[in-house]
Every structure is written in structure tokens, then in C-alpha cells.
Amino acid sequence: MPLPERLQRLVDLFASSPKQIKIAAMVDYADRLPDPPAELVKDGGLERVHECQTPFFVTSRVDSEHRVTLYFGVPREAPTMRGYAGILAEGLNGSTVDEILEVPDTFYLGMGIEEVVSPLRLRGMAAILARIKDQLRRAEQPAAV
């Protein structure tokens, strides 16, 4: 399955970068990740990904054209996971539900980030995308009448 274009560009960029650049890029994406809207935090609108060691929260919003916006709550003290969230936001926001559902759960292995991320964090990364997909499937279910 092809990745959404923006996500594929990120995968290719990371794959072609040396280890030190991958580390710097993860930190850069961590720094660029916006905080979630206050109303999502206040109303409990972010869903925890319990499989992550880091307190990691995500929610997916789907518009009328089935395009997705992702919101993440990740502590600044967790730059690796915050960086991964930044990559997902950059690579997936604006994609359709179907495009995201087709992304392989371990797409990040094509980035070569296993050089800079522990196996435990890699498992958390797979769980994050799985949670996003679960949210999208629920969002696309017809409302009960």
C-alpha cells in the first residue's frame, strides 16, 4: 500500500539520513509539534495510548470530506515520542480516513529509526498508529438511530 505523499517524503528523508541527522530531526519534529487545543485537554477529548511508556494522548477529527486532523498530547520531556507524534502530524494531517487506514502499522521501519529508538518505543509507535486507526474506524461508523 502506498503511503500518503507527505508521509512518504518523510520516510524517504529519514531513510536517507545518517543516524545523527535522524536524532536531530526527531528533536526538531518534537519542538514543532503544537500543543493540543485547550478544550480537548480540558474536556478529556484526548485518548491515552496505554501501550506507551510515556504518557501519550491522541485524538482524531474527521471533517465532512473525510479528511483527518490529528491532535497529540505528549510531554516535552519525551522528545522521541513527541518527535514521532510530530512526524505523524506532518505526514498524515489532511489525509483521508482511507489513506490513513492503509498505512502499515510499522511504516516507520522504512525510516531506519530503529537506529535511534529502543524496541520498547518502537512497539509504542505501532500502538499509536493502531489507536489512531481505531479512532478513525469508530468515527466512520454510522450513528445509531
Molecular structure report:
- It contains 6 helices and 3 strands, in the order H-H-H-E-E-E-H-H-H.
- It is mainly alpha-helical and 145 residues long.
- It has one domain (5-139): Sufe protein. Chain: A.
- Strands 1-2-3 form a 3-stranded antiparallel beta sheet.
- Helix 1 (5-15) crosses helix 4.
- The mean pLDDT is 92.
Low-confidence stretches: none
Number of helices: 6
**How big is the Rg?**
15 Å
Which CATH class? Alpha Beta
- Going by CATH, the architecture would be Alpha-Beta Complex
Helix content: 40-55%
What structural class should be given to the helix and strand makeup?
mainly alpha
CATH topology: Sufe protein. Chain: A
- Strand fraction equals 5-15%
Estimate the global geometry from the Cα principal axes. Answer: globular
What is the β-strand count?
3
Number of domains: 1
Mean pLDDT: 92
The string of secondary-structure elements, in order, is HHHEEEHHH
- N- to C-terminal distance: 35 Å
Please outline what is shown here:
The chain has 145 residues and is mostly helical.
Helix/strand layout:
Blueprint: H1 5-15, H2 19-32, H3 38-42, E1 47-48, E2 57-62, E3 68-73, H4 79-92, H5 97-101, H6 119-140
Helix pairs in contact: 1-4, 2-4
